[in-house]
Amino acid sequence: MAARKQILVIVALTAMLVILSGWFTGRVSATGPDYYHQVQRNIELFGRVYQEISRKYVEEIDPGEFMKAGIEGMLATLDPYTVLVEKEDNQELQIMSSGKYGGLGMRIGLRGGWPTVVEPPFDGTPSTKAGIREGDRIIEIDAVSTKGLTINKVASMLRGDIGSEVFLKIERAGEITPIEFRLIRAEIIVTDVIYSGIIESGIGLIRLSHFSRNAGKDIEKSIRELKKGGLRALILDLRSNPGGLLDAAVKVSENFLEKGTLIVSTEGRSAGSDQQYLAAKTPILGNIPLVVLVNGLSASASEIVAGAIQDHDRGVIIGSNSFGKGLVQTVIPITSEAALKVTTARYLVPSGRSIQDPSRFLPDPDKILYKPPTDNSEKKSDEETELSARNEVEQTYHTDKGREVLAAHGITPDIIIEPEQRSQFEIELLRKTMPFQFSVMYAAQHPELQRGFEVTDEMLEAFRQFLKEKGFIYKSQAELALQRIEKIAQESQYLASISASAEEIRSVILEQESKAFGNSRDFIQEELEEEISAKLWGSRAETEASIDHDETIQKAMDILADREKYDAILTAVDAK
Q1: What is the pLDDT of residues 377-407, one digit of tens each?
Q2: CATH T-level assignment (fold) for domain 193-363+389-416
Q3: Could you read off the pLDDT of 22-55 as tens digits, one per residue?
Q4: Per the residue annotation, which of 136, 218, 237, 311 is the catalytic one?
Q5: Is 300 an active-site residue?
Q6: Which of 104, 194, 233, 380 has the greatest number of beta carbons closer than 10 A?
Q7: Facing residues of 276 across strands?
Q8: pTM score of the predicted model
Q9: Kind and range of the H or E element at 374?
Q10: Active-site entry in 300, 320, 354, 539
């Protein structure tokens, strides 16, 4: 049955290619009159090869896996965003597109090989009503162990028809035996705004995590509420927001830009792919000063919003260079269990610049099958081609007020704040989720803590002991390098001659490693303050605990507190 479904997928894909061949005829006629014929002929060839190998190969093959390998091989010659989306991943697309799903209202991630609730459950959902907490480890779903399951698989098991029931067994810090829950799935409305509030003297902060169907409405609702609280300036935090729907990016931007203003345009190869998207309503924010925060993980829809704000001089962009994803994907259903997500166009922000970083995620040059349009001019040398590409990247464009902005590498902020560099010790703490695990335990043992608590020396010592009990092992880059040298020396049979020097170096390294905890004291205090706040009072408290030591937010507050400085940033250097 599974193989039959896979065969249906390839048949459907083939049929789709035939249907879409009309998609090529309008604007790709320059490729030659036989292009349509080539598509048909190669579809027949592909199907024949698949059929003959499946029937006659010396060993029996899995026809489903064989078909999948063929599709993946074709798509590998394109960009990394053109992919076949199968049933489990297709659920994520449907959730993003509809803005809702049937489920329990929790976000999960892997912690120690087990699915774990990694954020406070959404308000008003079955998880919240049943008392599920952040840090709870889900060990069984409907009597099936979750050990070793992927997050996609666990999420699929938790979701289902509205009104259906699901049985969970959960391990919780401070509880001797697992806790059993019977929950009834409900309609969960996706909320992309994870924080909204006035943080100081009329300065509001909205943190947007994704761009699903309801993002524009969520932002509008948040701004209305902040205005009631005396909003006089706004920080829109798009850091680490991976993007989402194009329509959602447009709807979010409409809250800030004047009606009729160009937000983004697309250009592509097929008829109808060249589109302009304009703001269709009066902005709810009005002329209130605006700062937008981005970083290297702000992508796609986040870059559309930041680019439109920057190009129209509507607000100041602060942070580090954004991701650089400016390609448009169209989702084409193939079967009930699969869809094709295919890149069909490029995004251009209002100044006309592309936000796609040309150096990011390019396919293997030896595998590239698509070719740019050619003319009758002489072939450029490699040096000329490289210079042309470099000039494209460095090409400057201008905002409405004449400020220079760069193209082709994402959004470059008006004020750049480089990401804080973490030591190897700190990286390992986060990678092994030590602050998270400790905070789950500590919050359960200290429910008497009040908001605004300080991380004391006693708490730090408790964390140090926790690391020992968990067997946390930290090796610096220097120690790892020394081990590699010793391995090479041993293989080359001269380890004995360097052993004395190696031991002397190791003693220095170990001495420095012993100081790692103390050297990272500030970092540990900040992490524990945020994590414990999240466990006791939710994600809102976590955000509020982070504000005082968030350099980017502090810079934004500084800019918004000085209107003269704010206006000067949005004025061209040569403007008088």
Answers
A1: 444 444 444 444 444 445 789 999 999 998 7
A2: 2-enoyl-CoA Hydratase; Chain A, domain 1 (3.90.226)
A3: 444 444 444 555 777 888 888 889 889 988 998 9
A4: 311
A5: yes
A6: 104
A7: 265
A8: 0.76
A9: none
A10: 300
